[in-house]
Amino acid sequence: MQAAVELFSHRKFWAHRFGIAPQLPMSRAEMDDLGWDSCDIIIITGDAYIDHPSFGMALIGRLLESHGFRVGIISQPDWNSAEDFKQLGQPNLFFGVTGGNMDSMVNRYTSDRRVRSNDAYTAAGEGGKRPDRCVVPYSQRCREAYKGVPIIIGGIEASLRRIAHYDYWSEKVRRSVIMDAKADILVYGNGERQVVEIAHRLARKEDVKTLTDIRGTAFITKHGQRDGWWEKDSTSVDAPGQLNPPIDPYQMKTAETCDESQTNTANIKIPSDGAQIIHFKRAETQDKEHTVVRLPPYQEVREDKILYAHTSRILHLETNPGNAFALVQQHGERDVWLNPPPIPLTTAEMDGVFDLTYSRVPHKSYGDKNIPAYEMIRFSVNIMRGCFGGCTFCSITEHEGRIIQSRSEDSIIKEVEAIRDTTPGFTGVISDLGGPTANMYRLACKTKEIEASCRRLSCVYPTICKNLGTDHTPLINLYKRARALPGIKKILIASGLRYDLAVLSPEYVKELVTHHVGGYLKIAPEHTEQGPLEHMMKPGIGTYDAFKAMFDKYSKEAGKEQYLIPYFIAAHPGTTDKDMMNLAIWLKRSGFRADQVQAYLPSPMSAAAAMYHSGKNTLSKVRRKGGDITVPKGIKVRRLHKAFLRYHDPENWPLLREALQKMGRADLIGNGKKHLIPTWQPAGTGEQGEGKRTSRKAGVKPQAKSFRTQHVRDKPAKRKPAKARRR
User: Fold this and answer.
1) Residue 2 needs a FRET pair 20 to 30 A away by CA distance; which of 318, 450, 468, 654 works?
2) Looking at residue 701, what DSSP letter applies?
3) What residues does 713 pair with on adjacent strands?
4) What pLDDT does residue 395 have?
5) What is the Cα Rg of the chain in Å?
6) Is pLDDT at 360 greater than 90 in this prediction?
7) Those residues with Cβ within 8 angstroms of residue 707's Cβ, 6 or more apart along the chain or in another chain
8) What is d(CA 465, CA 699) in angstroms, rounded to the nearest whole number?
9) Strand partners, 526
10) Are 225 and 231 spatial neighbours (Cβ–Cβ below 8 Å)?
């Protein structure tokens, strides 16, 4: 992996003489108070502005400020006209556009495509303050406001839509968001290195169209092969297997329009099935830094689900910064070019980012309005980034990468002390020391050389890699030091726990259970059956059992009554009705009841979304024949799978009775302890709500409440658990 320019080594921009703003300005009056005549950079965000390092607009804004740039924030503007986008004037360098901390579609809609009534990232939790796919209309309004100003899009929404992607809400493959937004550059992944380099180069009067060599960015270029670059067709990275005649859809149509197409083509051979396959010249080792993999064009992956699945697999194989090729995908007459992923931040750089001057509170313009997302994190500390778990339904890996980026212990303790000393309302309890995963702090590959060459999709599935360091000692020491600080009563761990790693360190589990659990601890086995777990890339339920045994043992030794809160997903690709029935049986046998359940939601660009769309298992080579998986689609089957998770809800009993009878499992219907559901129906429940006991087979009406975070609890006698949250 090539070395990166140290994040804070750039010479500061001249405007650093204005100093540090108490909060980044959101109005002309605030700019006047700071003595600014203009902003160098204006960040447009779909979230309320909270000056806290857990929020992207604040972190990037403060980082750019530390480099001397004057940064303004326009939060949740009215997207119906360009007026709100002019409120801070024209930026000298660029507009930075982000959807916010969540994808706007995930933020606004449930997995059943129902509109949510509230928005946790908005003052007073008010819904409807951002448009669908907000990066696109925000960018378009920026262009209308000031036509010549470069537009840089980033954040999780742009990151997960950087190539042609399946969109669950419109049920079609949409083109790269940079095309629809008409932006100049798309920043994907953690954006610190990219944004800082873009800002300094634009400040040096470089043309934004020449910024094509920055890792972790995508841009639009003229369709065709670029000078000085070798092209590899995507089938050379991961052969798709036998294809249907007469034409191989992976054929590179680029070559047909290039004068030098014949010189780039080694030969054409006709396989026995009649499919024509063009083999392009492969790049030699010395050409790796200037090799690009050409993906199937948008026009073809839009119509061909198998090509889409293949493209998704290639994208996931090319995510290691140490060995990833650049990618290019044709969109009509132009190409979307993706440079390799950014180099992860070092510990010193992470410390520098999190040690910047944040006020750690919402912008003053919100007054005393409550912002739910802020309330959730204001007493928490982010200790690391990234996740090497590779869960197929999760977008963390696609956005933050598999390489763990950890802060130093000193930096974390400094932030804990800042919360203690400066955050309003602090009562002595730190709500979380975590990140994407609670216990991956400082875990890494044993050598940088192995890490740079690895192409595994997960370091812990199907087994924990022998090259992965799993020592939890640094995390244990951090916990002990943090809880010993004066004024700190309790350090809780609320981030999701990777329990297959935790069981390798009994010392860690003992520290966690003895000192850092507030009665309930959430973990996510997601399912009990092997089929769904394999398509999720999650460990078997036996690992959960092993962790639970340790949890119960150390809770008892500590003299504490504590319980696990496991989470499960309904209707994930690879899940059958029988799988959900077996999960329901396990839940009842274990004494769990789901308060709220979550059906699988195909987030853009995730591996599971490709499975959902294509019906193919993208964890192995994608073939036209074979590799088909069960995909629960349609409201009826998704409702049934959720009903199995809530087997105890009388509203679901008619639907479950009908399903169990069709499955030949009527033996699970009865009034004994070993039965899953009873034969009788309580008054006022079920589809008709006729107010009488009946064993009538019937459907079930949709529930009025929205299905938000999934909450499954171990139900102790005469005790109700506190509400749990899930990141």
Assistant:
1) 468
2) P
3) 593
4) 87
5) 26
6) yes
7) 110, 111, 112, 596, 597, 598, 599, 642
8) 46
9) 568
10) yes
Give me the helices (H) in 430-539, please.
448-453, 473-483, 499-502, 506-515, 530-536
pLDDT reported for residue 2: 58
Cα gap 276→272, rounded to integer Å: 10
- The pLDDT > 70 percentage for the chain reads 87
Please give the Cα distance from 122 to 45 (Å, whole number): 11
Q: pLDDT tens across 293-321, in order?
A: 999 999 999 999 999 999 999 999 999 99
User: How far apart, in whole angstroms, are the C-alpha atoms of residue 226 and residue 224?
Assistant: 6
Omega of the bond prior to 462 within 30 degrees of 0, cis? yes
DSSP 38: S
Amino acid at the residue 6: E
- List pLDDT tens digits, range 120-143: 999 999 999 999 999 999 999 999
Closest by Cα among 52, 53, 54, 51 to 72: 51
Question: 240 with 273: CB under 8 angstroms?
Answer: no
DSSP letters along 346-411, please?
Answer: PHHHHHHHHTS----SB-GGGTT---HHHHHHTTEEE-EE--S---TT-SHHHHH-SS-EE--HHH
Strand partners, 669: 677
Residue 30 CA to residue 88 CA, distance in Å, equals 10
What is the residue type of 499? Y
Q: In whole angstroms, what separates CA 694 from the centre of its chain? A: 45
**300-304, 452-456, 606-610: which range is least confident on average?**
452-456
The pLDDT tens digits for 207-250 are 999 999 999 999 999 998 888 899 999 987 776 543 333 333 33
The fraction of the chain above a pLDDT of 90, given in percent, is 81
CA within 13 Å, CB half, 285: 0
First to last CA, the chain: 31
Half-sphere exposure for 618 (CA within 13 Å, toward CB): 31
CA–CA distance, 297 with 305 (Å, rounded to integer): 13
Global pTM exceeds 0.85? yes
Q: Where do the domains of the chain lie, and which CATH numbers do they carry?
A: 230-302 (no CATH), 379-516 (3.30.750.210), 525-727 (no CATH)
Beta bridge partners of 429: 490
At position 583, the amino acid (one-letter code) is L
Rounded CA separation 684/22 (Å)? 57
Strands 384-385 and 490-491: unpaired
Q: Is 305 exposed, middle or buried, given 0-12, 13-18 or 19+ CB atoms closer than 10 A? A: middle
